[in-house]
Structures are given as C-alpha cells and as structure tokens.
Target: Putative ABC transport system ATP-binding protein
Amino acid sequence: MIVRAVKIRKIYGKKDPFEALKGVSLEVDEGEILAILGPSGCGKTTLLNCLSGLDTPTDGEIFVLGKNLNNMSEEEKTKFRAENMGFIFQFFNLIPVLTAVENVEIPLLISKKFPVNKIRKKAYEWLERLHIGHRAKAYPNEMSGGEQQRVAIARALINNPKIVWADEPTGALDTKNSEEIMNIILEMNRELGTTFVIVTHDPNVAQKAHRIIKMDSGLIISGQKSG
Model:
C-alpha cells in the first residue's frame, strides 16, 4: 500500500462553512492506476490535493509511503513531494517563458539529484521517450494541447516518482489526444511501475484505470467505502 487516508474531512470557510469532504477513507496499492470519477464539485480534486499534501484536511490522517503528512511541516511536505511525487494538470501548468526541455528539467533542478550537466540530457531523453523530442526547443504557445500534455507528463516522470497525481489530465484535450495520453500513462505504469491516481469526470478515461472509485457530494459512493 502506497497511500492510506483515514476519515478525511475538509471544511472551507468559517462564517458559512462548506464541507467538501465528509469522512473519506481509501487505500491505494503500489503500482496501481486508480481513477477517482465524479461530477464537477463532488470533492475529487479536493481529495487529490489533500492526499498529495497540497492542501491540509480539517480532520483525518493521510499516510503516503508510510509517512504521516499531518506530522510534516510545509517545508518538509514540499521536499517530500519533490522527491516522491509527480503532478499532471488539466491545463498543463507549463511555464510559458521556458521551452519544452526547460520545463521538463524543473523537478531535477529543484531536487538536485543530478549534476546540472546531466539534467539537460535526461530531459531530452524523456521528451524522446514520449515522442515529443522534435519539439524540445518549442515554447508552450507554439505547441498543441496534446504536445503540451506530453511535455507535462515528461516533467512529472523525470524524477522517477513513486506516485503521480493527475487532475483531469485529458480535460482540455480532444478524444484522439485523450486516448493517446491515457495510453502513455498505461505504458509508463507498465514500464516503470509508477502509481497513478487520476481525477476525472470522463467515464472513458476512468475505464482505462485498474480500479475506479466514484464520488458524489464529498463522499465515496462506490469502489471503496468512506469512513
């Protein structure tokens, strides 16, 4: 097991509080592709943000790789994410003033796992691996959505993370590119054994995962029980 969440609640606001998560418990196995499926506003992105340590739950405990995120400072969580996690977002989150290869380099520059002279080489290798090497020197606004998402996936994987969190990774793409991106995720999971947790509203995307949990109104309603 790589992730375990126990009775996670998340409440926003004090004057007029909104309970986005209502006691959610779940487990994610190492090497699994888990899809969290549900409509907009059901709490799935809030859950993803809490599980990854980007947000802090109001109540409950989250363990990732055996570490209790509740016991970490923000600085410790940032370091833990850099060393163990990758992120893929709906709108790619590429830095517009950097080329594709420069965007891919960012996690290695932050983690300082490799000397600078090797980082560029590894970034090129990942772009080639995802069949986007010919666009290495292009800027984000010069690339299609599918190309940008391939760059984002290369950036997420270059640091060899144990787990990748994907928030609507195909949400901004057409059907053809959506299928290609999901096939890349499946391929990387098979080759590297990387765990993927994918938030989506698209049943076609979810069907490619090993397991689906469905959410509605801040609760898991099928696939795994809420606490």
